[in-house]
Design brief:
The radius of gyration is 22 Å and the shape is globular. The protein is mostly helical and 314 residues long. The longest helix is centred in the middle third of the chain and has 34 residues.
Length: 314
Protein backbone atom coordinates (compact mmCIF):
# COMPACT_ATOMS: atom_id res chain seq x y z
CA UNK A 1 0.00 0.00 0.00
CA UNK A 2 1.21 3.50 -0.80
CA UNK A 3 1.43 5.60 2.39
CA UNK A 4 0.74 8.78 0.38
CA UNK A 5 -2.79 7.55 -0.26
CA UNK A 6 -3.60 7.78 3.43
CA UNK A 7 -3.30 11.59 3.34
CA UNK A 8 -5.33 12.14 0.18
CA UNK A 9 -8.65 11.78 2.01
CA UNK A 10 -8.68 13.86 5.20
CA UNK A 11 -12.40 13.57 5.82
CA UNK A 12 -15.67 12.05 4.66
CA UNK A 13 -19.02 13.47 3.61
CA UNK A 14 -21.91 11.79 5.42
CA UNK A 15 -24.82 11.53 3.00
CA UNK A 16 -27.22 10.89 5.88
CA UNK A 17 -30.84 9.83 5.59
CA UNK A 18 -31.98 12.30 2.93
CA UNK A 19 -30.83 15.25 0.84
CA UNK A 20 -34.28 16.91 0.81
CA UNK A 21 -34.47 19.82 3.30
CA UNK A 22 -38.12 19.15 4.25
CA UNK A 23 -37.41 15.51 5.06
CA UNK A 24 -34.32 16.44 7.04
CA UNK A 25 -36.35 18.82 9.22
CA UNK A 26 -38.95 16.08 9.74
CA UNK A 27 -36.27 13.53 10.64
CA UNK A 28 -34.67 16.04 13.00
CA UNK A 29 -37.89 16.51 14.97
CA UNK A 30 -38.62 12.77 15.10
CA UNK A 31 -35.13 11.66 16.12
CA UNK A 32 -34.66 14.52 18.59
CA UNK A 33 -37.74 13.14 20.38
CA UNK A 34 -36.39 9.58 20.11
CA UNK A 35 -33.00 10.59 21.52
CA UNK A 36 -34.60 12.55 24.37
CA UNK A 37 -36.73 9.52 25.31
CA UNK A 38 -33.65 7.26 25.07
CA UNK A 39 -31.59 9.44 27.41
CA UNK A 40 -34.39 9.96 29.93
CA UNK A 41 -35.58 6.34 29.90
CA UNK A 42 -32.17 4.72 30.29
CA UNK A 43 -30.83 7.15 32.88
CA UNK A 44 -34.09 6.78 34.81
CA UNK A 45 -33.54 3.02 35.06
CA UNK A 46 -29.96 3.60 36.28
CA UNK A 47 -31.27 6.05 38.89
CA UNK A 48 -34.07 3.71 40.01
CA UNK A 49 -31.78 0.70 40.44
CA UNK A 50 -29.16 2.79 42.24
CA UNK A 51 -31.65 4.41 44.65
CA UNK A 52 -33.77 1.41 45.66
CA UNK A 53 -32.05 -1.12 47.99
CA UNK A 54 -34.57 -3.80 46.98
CA UNK A 55 -33.14 -3.68 43.45
CA UNK A 56 -29.52 -4.15 44.53
CA UNK A 57 -29.42 -7.65 43.06
CA UNK A 58 -27.40 -9.18 40.25
CA UNK A 59 -30.24 -9.08 37.73
CA UNK A 60 -30.93 -5.38 38.26
CA UNK A 61 -27.23 -4.55 38.40
CA UNK A 62 -26.90 -6.06 34.92
CA UNK A 63 -30.06 -4.27 33.76
CA UNK A 64 -28.72 -0.91 34.96
CA UNK A 65 -25.45 -1.56 33.12
CA UNK A 66 -27.37 -2.38 29.94
CA UNK A 67 -29.34 0.87 30.27
CA UNK A 68 -26.13 2.86 30.76
CA UNK A 69 -24.63 1.19 27.67
CA UNK A 70 -27.77 1.96 25.65
CA UNK A 71 -27.45 5.61 26.64
CA UNK A 72 -23.78 5.62 25.55
CA UNK A 73 -24.49 3.67 22.36
CA UNK A 74 -27.17 6.08 21.21
CA UNK A 75 -25.03 9.10 22.13
CA UNK A 76 -22.21 7.95 19.83
CA UNK A 77 -24.31 8.53 16.70
CA UNK A 78 -27.47 10.49 17.55
CA UNK A 79 -26.14 13.97 18.51
CA UNK A 80 -23.95 14.16 15.42
CA UNK A 81 -26.74 12.87 13.20
CA UNK A 82 -29.11 15.51 14.58
CA UNK A 83 -26.54 18.25 13.96
CA UNK A 84 -25.85 16.96 10.45
CA UNK A 85 -29.57 17.02 9.58
CA UNK A 86 -29.46 20.81 10.03
CA UNK A 87 -26.09 21.19 8.31
CA UNK A 88 -25.77 21.99 4.63
CA UNK A 89 -22.60 19.95 4.18
CA UNK A 90 -22.13 17.32 6.94
CA UNK A 91 -18.52 16.15 7.03
CA UNK A 92 -16.39 14.22 9.50
CA UNK A 93 -12.60 14.10 9.70
CA UNK A 94 -10.71 10.85 9.11
CA UNK A 95 -9.67 10.75 12.76
CA UNK A 96 -13.19 11.58 13.93
CA UNK A 97 -14.58 8.83 11.72
CA UNK A 98 -12.24 6.22 13.20
CA UNK A 99 -12.99 7.45 16.72
CA UNK A 100 -16.72 7.07 16.14
CA UNK A 101 -16.16 3.62 14.64
CA UNK A 102 -14.08 2.57 17.65
CA UNK A 103 -16.63 3.62 20.29
CA UNK A 104 -19.55 2.30 18.22
CA UNK A 105 -18.08 -1.21 18.16
CA UNK A 106 -16.64 -0.91 21.67
CA UNK A 107 -20.02 -0.21 23.30
CA UNK A 108 -21.81 -2.57 20.89
CA UNK A 109 -19.39 -5.38 21.75
CA UNK A 110 -19.88 -4.83 25.49
CA UNK A 111 -23.66 -5.01 25.00
CA UNK A 112 -23.43 -8.34 23.19
CA UNK A 113 -21.26 -9.86 25.92
CA UNK A 114 -23.49 -8.37 28.63
CA UNK A 115 -26.61 -9.91 27.08
CA UNK A 116 -24.83 -13.27 27.19
CA UNK A 117 -24.05 -12.73 30.88
CA UNK A 118 -27.71 -11.80 31.52
CA UNK A 119 -28.83 -15.04 29.84
CA UNK A 120 -26.44 -17.02 32.05
CA UNK A 121 -27.70 -15.15 35.10
CA UNK A 122 -31.32 -16.13 34.34
CA UNK A 123 -30.27 -19.72 33.64
CA UNK A 124 -28.58 -20.04 37.05
CA UNK A 125 -31.48 -18.28 38.82
CA UNK A 126 -34.05 -20.70 37.36
CA UNK A 127 -32.06 -23.94 37.27
CA UNK A 128 -30.27 -23.57 40.62
CA UNK A 129 -32.26 -21.09 42.75
CA UNK A 130 -30.76 -22.21 46.08
CA UNK A 131 -27.16 -21.84 44.88
CA UNK A 132 -27.85 -18.70 42.83
CA UNK A 133 -26.60 -16.17 45.47
CA UNK A 134 -23.38 -18.16 45.82
CA UNK A 135 -22.76 -18.62 42.07
CA UNK A 136 -23.71 -15.08 40.97
CA UNK A 137 -22.15 -13.13 43.84
CA UNK A 138 -20.78 -9.59 43.53
CA UNK A 139 -17.24 -10.78 42.75
CA UNK A 140 -18.35 -13.05 39.93
CA UNK A 141 -20.66 -10.37 38.57
CA UNK A 142 -17.81 -7.84 38.60
CA UNK A 143 -15.56 -10.28 36.73
CA UNK A 144 -18.25 -10.84 34.11
CA UNK A 145 -18.63 -7.08 33.61
CA UNK A 146 -14.85 -6.59 33.38
CA UNK A 147 -14.68 -9.44 30.84
CA UNK A 148 -17.44 -7.79 28.79
CA UNK A 149 -15.52 -4.51 28.66
CA UNK A 150 -12.27 -6.24 27.73
CA UNK A 151 -14.07 -8.29 25.05
CA UNK A 152 -15.69 -5.15 23.64
CA UNK A 153 -12.34 -3.36 23.53
CA UNK A 154 -10.59 -6.22 21.72
CA UNK A 155 -13.43 -6.54 19.22
CA UNK A 156 -13.38 -2.79 18.52
CA UNK A 157 -9.62 -2.31 18.30
CA UNK A 158 -9.46 -5.08 15.68
CA UNK A 159 -11.98 -3.16 13.53
CA UNK A 160 -9.97 0.05 13.78
CA UNK A 161 -6.60 -1.66 13.22
CA UNK A 162 -7.83 -3.33 10.02
CA UNK A 163 -9.56 -0.19 8.72
CA UNK A 164 -6.78 2.33 9.44
CA UNK A 165 -4.37 0.42 7.17
CA UNK A 166 -6.59 0.87 4.12
CA UNK A 167 -5.69 3.53 1.52
CA UNK A 168 -8.45 6.11 0.93
CA UNK A 169 -7.91 8.26 -2.15
CA UNK A 170 -11.50 9.13 -3.11
CA UNK A 171 -14.41 9.20 -3.43
CA UNK A 172 -15.07 10.29 0.14
CA UNK A 173 -18.89 10.07 0.40
CA UNK A 174 -20.18 7.70 3.09
CA UNK A 175 -23.70 6.53 2.33
CA UNK A 176 -24.86 6.59 5.95
CA UNK A 177 -25.30 8.96 8.91
CA UNK A 178 -22.34 7.57 10.89
CA UNK A 179 -19.00 5.87 10.24
CA UNK A 180 -19.03 2.09 10.13
CA UNK A 181 -16.93 -0.66 8.61
CA UNK A 182 -19.18 -1.68 5.66
CA UNK A 183 -19.34 1.85 4.22
CA UNK A 184 -15.67 2.67 4.86
CA UNK A 185 -14.36 -0.51 3.26
CA UNK A 186 -16.25 0.25 0.05
CA UNK A 187 -14.32 3.55 -0.28
CA UNK A 188 -10.87 1.97 -0.02
CA UNK A 189 -8.60 2.23 -3.08
CA UNK A 190 -7.61 -1.42 -3.03
CA UNK A 191 -9.06 -4.90 -3.30
CA UNK A 192 -10.85 -5.56 0.00
CA UNK A 193 -12.34 -9.00 -0.69
CA UNK A 194 -10.14 -10.82 1.86
CA UNK A 195 -10.69 -8.06 4.43
CA UNK A 196 -14.46 -8.24 3.92
CA UNK A 197 -14.39 -11.97 4.62
CA UNK A 198 -12.38 -11.32 7.78
CA UNK A 199 -14.78 -8.58 8.90
CA UNK A 200 -17.84 -10.71 8.18
CA UNK A 201 -16.28 -13.51 10.25
CA UNK A 202 -15.35 -11.15 13.09
CA UNK A 203 -18.68 -9.30 13.16
CA UNK A 204 -21.42 -11.23 11.46
CA UNK A 205 -20.67 -14.88 12.17
CA UNK A 206 -19.71 -14.24 15.80
CA UNK A 207 -22.92 -12.22 16.28
CA UNK A 208 -24.98 -14.93 14.61
CA UNK A 209 -23.44 -17.67 16.75
CA UNK A 210 -24.00 -15.66 19.96
CA UNK A 211 -27.61 -15.09 18.92
CA UNK A 212 -28.18 -18.81 18.30
CA UNK A 213 -26.55 -19.71 21.62
CA UNK A 214 -28.75 -17.19 23.43
CA UNK A 215 -31.90 -18.48 21.73
CA UNK A 216 -30.89 -22.04 22.64
CA UNK A 217 -30.32 -21.07 26.28
CA UNK A 218 -33.67 -19.29 26.55
CA UNK A 219 -35.40 -22.24 24.89
CA UNK A 220 -33.85 -24.54 27.50
CA UNK A 221 -35.03 -22.16 30.23
CA UNK A 222 -38.59 -22.16 28.92
CA UNK A 223 -38.60 -25.97 28.88
CA UNK A 224 -37.20 -26.00 32.42
CA UNK A 225 -39.97 -23.69 33.64
CA UNK A 226 -42.61 -26.38 33.11
CA UNK A 227 -41.62 -27.99 36.43
CA UNK A 228 -42.02 -24.73 38.41
CA UNK A 229 -45.07 -23.50 40.31
CA UNK A 230 -47.60 -21.37 38.46
CA UNK A 231 -46.59 -18.16 40.26
CA UNK A 232 -42.87 -18.78 39.83
CA UNK A 233 -43.36 -19.76 36.20
CA UNK A 234 -45.34 -16.58 35.47
CA UNK A 235 -42.66 -14.31 36.96
CA UNK A 236 -39.80 -16.13 35.21
CA UNK A 237 -41.67 -16.13 31.90
CA UNK A 238 -42.17 -12.36 32.12
CA UNK A 239 -38.45 -11.80 32.73
CA UNK A 240 -37.40 -14.21 29.97
CA UNK A 241 -39.84 -12.63 27.51
CA UNK A 242 -38.26 -9.21 28.14
CA UNK A 243 -34.76 -10.62 27.63
CA UNK A 244 -35.75 -12.44 24.44
CA UNK A 245 -37.37 -9.28 23.03
CA UNK A 246 -34.23 -7.19 23.71
CA UNK A 247 -31.90 -9.88 22.34
CA UNK A 248 -33.96 -10.11 19.15
CA UNK A 249 -34.10 -6.33 18.66
CA UNK A 250 -30.32 -6.04 19.06
CA UNK A 251 -29.05 -9.14 17.28
CA UNK A 252 -31.32 -9.43 14.23
CA UNK A 253 -30.40 -5.98 12.77
CA UNK A 254 -26.68 -6.62 13.50
CA UNK A 255 -26.84 -9.97 11.71
CA UNK A 256 -28.55 -8.30 8.74
CA UNK A 257 -25.82 -5.62 8.48
CA UNK A 258 -22.68 -7.63 9.24
CA UNK A 259 -23.31 -11.29 8.37
CA UNK A 260 -23.28 -10.71 4.60
CA UNK A 261 -21.02 -9.17 1.95
CA UNK A 262 -20.68 -5.40 2.34
CA UNK A 263 -23.05 -4.36 -0.43
CA UNK A 264 -25.70 -1.64 -0.33
CA UNK A 265 -29.32 -2.71 0.02
CA UNK A 266 -32.45 -0.51 0.17
CA UNK A 267 -33.19 -1.38 3.82
CA UNK A 268 -29.68 -0.69 5.16
CA UNK A 269 -30.32 2.82 6.51
CA UNK A 270 -33.68 1.88 8.01
CA UNK A 271 -32.08 -1.07 9.82
CA UNK A 272 -29.20 1.16 10.98
CA UNK A 273 -31.70 3.62 12.46
CA UNK A 274 -33.49 0.73 14.17
CA UNK A 275 -30.52 -0.62 16.11
CA UNK A 276 -28.64 2.65 16.74
CA UNK A 277 -31.59 4.83 17.83
CA UNK A 278 -34.90 3.00 18.17
CA UNK A 279 -33.78 -0.13 20.05
CA UNK A 280 -31.95 1.81 22.84
CA UNK A 281 -35.18 3.77 23.34
CA UNK A 282 -37.37 0.65 23.49
CA UNK A 283 -35.23 -1.34 25.94
CA UNK A 284 -36.29 0.66 29.06
CA UNK A 285 -39.96 0.33 28.08
CA UNK A 286 -39.63 -3.42 27.50
CA UNK A 287 -38.09 -3.97 30.93
CA UNK A 288 -40.20 -1.51 32.97
CA UNK A 289 -43.63 -2.26 31.48
CA UNK A 290 -43.23 -5.97 32.24
CA UNK A 291 -41.55 -5.60 35.63
CA UNK A 292 -43.65 -4.82 38.73
CA UNK A 293 -40.59 -4.30 40.95
CA UNK A 294 -39.17 -1.61 38.67
CA UNK A 295 -42.56 0.12 38.39
CA UNK A 296 -42.95 0.10 42.19
CA UNK A 297 -39.43 1.48 42.61
CA UNK A 298 -40.23 4.18 40.05
CA UNK A 299 -43.35 5.21 42.01
CA UNK A 300 -41.29 5.33 45.22
CA UNK A 301 -38.66 7.53 43.55
CA UNK A 302 -41.38 9.83 42.21
CA UNK A 303 -43.06 10.16 45.64
CA UNK A 304 -39.69 10.90 47.22
CA UNK A 305 -39.09 13.60 44.61
CA UNK A 306 -42.50 15.18 45.26
CA UNK A 307 -41.95 15.19 49.05
CA UNK A 308 -38.46 16.70 48.68
CA UNK A 309 -39.73 19.36 46.31
CA UNK A 310 -42.62 20.18 48.65
CA UNK A 311 -40.21 20.70 51.57
CA UNK A 312 -37.99 22.95 49.46
CA UNK A 313 -40.96 25.14 48.45
CA UNK A 314 -42.00 25.59 52.09
Amino acid sequence: MNPVNHTQVTGFVLLGLSQAWELRIFFFMVFLTVYFCTVMGNLLIVAIVSSDPHLHTTMYFLLANLSFLDFCYSSITSPRMLADLLSGNPTISFGGCLTQLFFFHFIGGIKIFLLTVMAYDRYVAISQPLRYPLIMNQGVCGLFMAGSWVGGFIHSIVQVALTVQLPFCGPNKLDNFYCDVPQLIKLACTDTFALELLMVSNNGLVTLMCFLVLLGSYTALLIMLRSHSREGRSKALSTCASHIAVVTLIFVPCIYIYARPFRTFPMDKAVSVLYTMVTPMLNPAIYTLRNKEVIDAMKKLWRKYIVTRGKQEH
